[in-house]
Amino acid sequence: MKSTMNGARITRRTALQTIGATTALATGTLAAPAIIKRASAADPIRVGVISPLTGAWTVYGRAHSAGFQMAVDEINEKGGVLGRPFEVVLGDSKTEPRIVVEQANRLIRQEQVDFLAGTFSSAERNAAGPVVTSANKILLYPTFYEGQEKEYHPGVCNPNIFMFGPEPTQQVWPHMEYMMENFGNKFFMIGSDYAWPRVTNLVTKRKLDDLGGEVVAEVYIPFNTPQYESVLRDIRDSGADIIFHSLTGSDTVNFRRQYAAAGMKDDFTFWTVDDEEVVTSGLGPEVSEGDYVSFDYFMTIEHPNNKGFLDRFKTKFGQDALMNTVGVAMYNAAHMAAKAIEQTGEVSTDALREGLRGMTFDDAPQGPVRMREIDHQMVLPSYLMQVREGWTDVNDMFQEVQLFESVEPLDARCDLPL
Q: Phi/psi zone of residue 209: left (φ > 0), alpha (ψ -120 to 50 degrees), beta?
């Protein structure tokens, strides 16, 4: 572990019932006969990318789709894979799980893609699960998420889904001792009312119990809540030391601004597991400064891979373009899929699945990463950052507090191996 100390967040919607609500639609849509197309060596390898291009998460969709497209361009510039170029076919999720079902079916059935990448939220991934299971296609999922629990299959614990982002035992657990030793052991948990915050908090509480901490309150907020006066009063009266935050989208912006305006930033330590460069840029320095954020990737990390990656990214998308953990996961996913196809020598679901299992990718922007064979979860670094006072842009937004260079997640709570 490398550690330095100073003195002293991409959203999702609906709950896990999305799985049940979309299974019938997914299965029914796929019941029609498949259209068979024979590929030649010159035909492109078609990838269906489902991104939030419109709707509440559009700002996240830019980095999400850009990361994958950048990797595809790099792959094609080197001659493609097996003499075939990658071709991206985009689908807009519109930040709605039901739309993900429609898009996944369209991309597989009509566009005849070879595999899928993307979806953004856990609810979107869960909506896609029945589709990729029925069609026997691989889904490369990029977002930090709540971890895999068997009861939520086929959105997780699915041999056709690979997770490229961190889960709580990587994103949160490594930094809990530092936070508690420096700021106290009483947590006030506030999150959006759906799967990712609830299960993330459940996993966090397991470690908190082991370390002798306690949750003084746990609050889940409906989407699109404009005012937080009552919650702020509850926080003031809670006796908490640390506000553990997993609100998403516009709700995180509304809450954070009202929290700062109420003069509460000096009274509590604020730790968010949702607000990366995109969200923090939208909050501004006065609202965000001094707060803590943990992820596997930040634009400001000093790993040598990151400099070249950002140089290429800004050359392609502009000097002001923002990258984040999810866009980097999409970038890694594309390169690792290409590597898997190259190594196995064929484009098929079975070959892609077997090629990805256990694969390492040394050129990832955050440093070498590995796809664990047993449960399709990535082994990743974990950074704890603090938002600098008076930051002006992403280049001076975060300062590193603590780094674990490679964190193995807990085994997925599935029938293993997948």
A: alpha
